Amino acid sequence: AQSVSQHNHHVILSEAASLELGCNYSYGGTVNLFWYVQYPGQHLQLLLKYFSGDPLVKGIKGFEAEFIKSKFSFNLRKPSVQWSDTAEYFCAVSNQAGTALIFGKGTTLSVSS
Amino acid sequence: DAGVTQSPTHLIKTRGQQVTLRCSPKSGHDTVSWYQQALGQGPQFIFQYYEEEERQRGNFPDRFSGHQFPNYSSELNVNALLLGDSALYLCASSLVQAGAEAFFGQGTRLTVV
Asked: Nearest-CA residue of chain A relative to B50?
C-alpha cells in the first residue's frame, strides 16, 4: 500500500531563513508527487507537482522540490521564507493509474517576522 | 469561475444518525473525490466518482457511501455515525486524467456528539 511520511511535525523559522521539509513515500511503481499548502482559514491549494522529466520542479511563490527516486524522497525547499509562508504543508502521492491522493500528516510552518 | 463549493460548512449530529454532505465541482471538472481529515492529520482518501460511478475507494467502511449526479455534483453519505467520524470532510474536483490537479473545497466540519 502507498504511504507518505513527513518528518517534521512543526517547524519554526525566522524570516529570510532557508526551508527544507522532508517527504518520503512508499510505493513500488511509478508515482506522481505533489506538495499542497493550506494557509490559515483557506482551502488546500497546489504548490507544485512532479510527473516525469526534470527531477527539480519549481512551483508557486518561490518553492521548489527535488525528486530523488533512489531515496523515495520529494523534499520541499525555499531559499528565504516570508511571514506569509506560515501555513500547513502536505506532501501527497498518487499512482499513474488514478487521481486519488495519499497524503502525509502535514508539517506546520511558523515564520516569525 | 466558481471553485469547489461544499455545504454545509458546519454540522453537528448525534451518534447513530445519518448525514449527507454536498459538493459542487469546479466548472469543467468531471471527477469528484472525497477526503476525511481528522484533527492533526492529513486528508485520507474516501472514494472518487466519475461518470456517476465509484471509480476508486479508500479504506473506509460501507457506512460511507456516495453519489454523483449528471451535472457532476456529488454527495457523501455517512450512516450510523460514530464519535470517530468527527472530522473535516473535503471535496476535491479534477479531470479524470491520471495526475490531474485536484482543486479542494473549504470542507464541511462534522461534529458527532
From this structure: A99
C-alpha span between A98 and B41 (Å, rounded): 22
A-proximal residues of B, 24-63, CB under 8 Å: 31, 33, 35, 40-45, 48, 55-56, 58
Contact state of A98 with B45 under an 8 Å Cβ cutoff: no
pLDDT band at B101 (very low <50, low <70, confident <90, very high): confident
Q: What is the pLDDT of residues A53-62, one digit of tens each?
A: 999 999 999 9
Interface contacts A/B by beta carbons within 8 Å = 68
Angstrom distance (rounded) from CA B93 to CA B105: 8
Residue B96: its pLDDT value, please? 83
